[in-house]
Amino acid sequence: MPNRRYHIHIICADNDQLLVLDTLAIFFQARAFLTYDVSSKLPKASLYGRQCIDACNYVFMVIGDSYGTVQKNGVSQMHLSYLSAKAKLKPLIILVKNNYQETSASRQLQELIRLVTKQDNQIYYYDTEDDIESLLVQAYYNILASHKITGGWIRANDELIKFSNQTVAERLTELSPQNKSVEKEITTDEAFVVDHISKSIVLTETFEIQYSAQAYEGGNLRDMTRVMKLSWQQVLTALIKIPSTFSSYGLQNTINRLIAPKAEIDIKKDRPNVHAVSRCQISQTDMDNLQRQLVSANWIQLVTYGTRVSQELWKLTFYAKNLLHDQISTTSKQD
User: Fold this and answer.
1) CA dist., res. 164 & res. 158, Å (int)
2) What is the C-alpha to C-alpha distance for residues 245 and 247, in angstroms, rounded to an integer?
3) Residue in 209, 287, 296 with CA at minimum distance from that of residue 252
4) Measuring CA to CA, how many Å separate 45 from each of 10, 13, 49, 78, 211?
5) What are phi and psi of 15, to 5 degrees?
6) Beta carbons within 10 angstroms of residue 85's beta carbon
7) How many Cβ atoms from other residues are within 10 Å of residue 235's Cβ?
8) Model's pTM, two decimal places?
9) Which H/E stretch holds residue 128?
10) What is the average per-residue pLDDT within 258-279?
11) Which of 26, 43, 134, 245 has its CA 20 to 30 A from that of 206?
12) Which pLDDT score is estimated for 189?
């Protein structure tokens, strides 16, 4: 999902957990636009926090060693922002440092943590700053899967332009695992970015996607946009053929290859004088939605990650492989 960015507001105490906040900035550099709570010493801090929460798509909250500066109303900006996010029903992820039970933690901080743990929140605990990046991988893809939104910015970037100009052979060469430098590997348990199936997928069901293509007609090149129906079984059959690990670009390339033959048939049926069709590409919005659904249904899981989206590698889950195997076995018995 390289060219869709969301607005994420970070709720935090002033001058606390600075390395954690830096890690969030690096992790979300290619994924989202970030705003942060500002110092309570500024007269418009509360107003700024409310406005950012009103405008944002998701909220991340970092609870560390400090409750934050207490204002005249007796609470900190972090506390106020949390209440505002809950009142606005914003999708919320909370990162809590594990040492909050120590005697050094203030009474107000302990009360705030008791409040957030009692309420319906997605909470991730960490011991040190080194734990944050692996937690963010799980938290971010969980919240994308469980809280689908239509907002966010779509913008072109150099990687996407480069990708669209490459030949299939060049893309496959670049996407091969041996040509990727992966910064860190995680265990099988850590690789699951969702720990349950939030919405099951029926293989025989169909869905619509929009795609673009270039058609050659009478010596002229035409850019065309069409809608196509795909079944989930077609998607799963295509995924089975991907190498053991693949990038988001590799996933998109697989879907493009899946739709290309049908796109050529549909376009030539509509325009008989077209003699060639090329560069069939699923729309980026539909690709983003498709990938989120694959994660949510536990069909694909993250196996390696880095600080950039291009360094993430995915693989098909055992659940998805068994799903197709069971479907084929059932069909064979019926025949």
Assistant:
1) 10
2) 7
3) 287
4) 14, 12, 6, 11, 45
5) 60, 40
6) 26
7) 22
8) 0.48
9) none
10) 87
11) 245
12) 31
